[in-house]
Amino acid sequence: MKIADELVGRANDDGGLSVQSSSATVVEGLQRLVTAHDLRFRRVQTVSDAQLADLTERAARNSGAAQPDLAADVEVIASENSRAAIIALARELHALPEIEYAELESQDQPPPPPAADVAPVTPLLVSNQTYRGASTGVNVDYVWNTFGVRGDGSLRVTDCEYQYNPDHEDLSGLVQMQPNLVSMYTGFGDDHGTAVVGIIASGWNSYGTTGSMPECVTRFYPEFSTLTTGHQSRSACVTAAIAASASGDIVVLEMQANGPATGTTDYVMAEIDISVWNAVRVGTDAGIITVAAAGNGNQNLDDSALFSAYNARGDSGAIIVGGGSSARAKLSFSTYGTRVNVQGWGGGVFTTGYGAYATYGSDPNQEYTSGFSGTSSATPVVASAVALLQSVAIKLLGIRLSPGELRSILVNTGRPQTGAGAATTPIGPLPELEAAVAALLAAHPPTFSTLESWGHYHLATPTPDLAADVDQDGSPALLEYVLGTDPKTQSAADRSRHPHVSLAAPGGGPSVLALDFHQPATRTAAMWVVQQSDSLLTNSWQDLVHGVNGVTITRTGDTIQVTLPATAQKFLRLKVTAN
């Protein structure tokens, strides 16, 4: 439950509860229930109050909105723990004015699917990862091949769920575990998490699968786990992952929860629980991107009879992911509605774990499957697109996209949902990275203030060979950078940007030599100087300086003009050097 913010409620180490109020009558209803049901309380959050304060301060500064007191979430421990008794108690607590909400936290099984290569040898299996492709996938390979971007080393992507296999041959040593972890919850096995992490982070090597963004920092924060500080619930796990993230980082919620419909398979997104929604909203306000599974309950989130309370909260800012076929039609299990932003492949996803495709050498650390499914497979496919688009923004533009802008780009540039139910059971478009990157660069034209960003954009590498002349036009790459020309193609437009000399007599006066060339002012990763020589001998070149010996150097927009008196034969050249 969450205590009202103004009371600054905290669970004490002795199982009691402290609040800040000048009147005991403010919490007399809660005190009555504590006595009647012999209640004790335990802190929910596994991160410190200082870390929570830092997160909410970032969120408030970034959004200008007041933030909830996440430390006021407490776990209620009752002596009567039958299902009926717990539900009745939650209703009593929820009705109290001093309690913001009381809810039951879901512990629902994730849906199953319908480093160094260890002996025996595992073949390279990337050709099976067709969700990466251009024709029916999210077009991971476009970003890889066009820009040489496979993630960014400063970008953290955190998967939140129960368990994964850290010893899998394609994951070993590639995933950072949550600090202070003692053990993960093992009740549902490790295959689900292994499959998810394999999609985003399996090794870029010569065997097995290849993660979509192996150059990002991938982390794993397990729910219902044990830390050195104690038990970690679902909402504590989500809050910890968000608190340990910076603006622009990504948190993936590979979890679902029971919805309000009657039954045991009415699965919806985890943020149906207010404690998770609060954490996600604070994270969004702090600039942190959440990608969350819609759930496998085939629930209609636009059903006002069931979801009016959820929808009344507003938009948490998360990217909610539905499950579609490779043809982009809604699959039968996927929860749907206008709140579902985008879809990912909900079946036929090839990844690590399970062993349905192969278990090489009968070794569980060499298991691969071709049938990972559900919104569980759809979510990391979408998270791949999210992380790669963010990585392009970081590497080419030097910025990190906000949750709102990134989500908007993916929605507006994705391939539309197909099928007869597209209008009545919406799960959103499938992200398509070529169109998404084009929209990103149109909204934020690159300035190429670094050679790394220019190299990624033009030559798919952050370390281009600056002496190479790729298009054979006589200009090395560094000169092409300074002039703002394309190093891979020759064109009339590019030739007009190269230095050219003219002779003129302004106003009928003495003749002057003029050297004109194109030089975008934002390209500051290299220096340029115009030099003159009378003889072309190596040591005869002299820098031209504005105001010295009749020299003028002027800039008009991105055009440089250098003039000097035409008193004798002179040779001119443009010399460029990298900073």
Characteristics:
14 helices, 579 residues, 7-stranded parallel sheet, single chain, 4-stranded antiparallel sheet, alpha+beta
Describe this structure in words.
The chain has 14 helices and 28 strands. The chain is an alpha+beta fold and 579 residues long. The protein has a 7-stranded parallel sheet, sandwiched between helices. The chain has a 4-stranded antiparallel sheet with strand order 22-23-27-26, with no helix packed on it. Strands 9-11-12 form a 3-stranded antiparallel sheet. The longest helix has 24 residues, at 374-397. The radius of gyration is 30 Å and the shape is elongated. The protein starts with a strand and ends with a strand.
Low-confidence segments, given as residue ranges, are none
How much helicity do the residues have? 25-40%
Distance between the termini: 57 Å
**Helix/strand/pairing category:** alpha+beta
Strand content: 15-25%
The counted number of beta strands is 28
What characterizes the major β-sheet? 7 strands, parallel
**Average pLDDT level:** 94
Query: What is the approximate shape?
Result: elongated
Largest beta sheet: what is the strand line-up? 8-10-7-13-16-17-18
User: What is the alpha-carbon Rg in Å?
Assistant: 30 Å
The number of distinct helices, counting runs of at least 4 residues, comes to 14
